[in-house]
Amino acid sequence: MTVPGPTKAVVACHCTDCQKRSGAPFGVAAYYPHGEIEIEGAARRFSRPTAAGGVFEQRFCPECGVTVLMKGAKNPDVTGIPIGLFDDAHDMQPVRSVWEDRKHAWVEITSAVQHFPRARVD
Known about the structure:
Elements: E1 10-13, H1 16-22, E2 27-33, E3 44-49, E4 55-60, E5 67-72, E6 78-82, E7 96-98, E8 114-115
Parallel strand pairs: 1-7, 7-8
Antiparallel strand pairs: 1-2, 2-6, 3-4, 4-5
């Protein structure tokens, strides 16, 4: 996978779908403009309805099952890449934390980021 470079759009999501998708208390993704990400090889698609009535799509590697990208109907111009796929993700800190009404009680996200009880409202 090739991305255009660093992004400042890193988001922690605590929704139950991201918890299930990631197998963790929350998912963290780096977002890039749609079309600026290149994927080498095949990726399988899985789509599911969202609570807002849209569709959330994730693509995963058919060999190992890892999620390689995510796209939602709410923001169709951006594509999310789970930060665990990057070799140099140590500096990729979230700028936003969403669906905090589903956040596990023991999880703490720094106060330096934007906090939203549900999805970000534009």
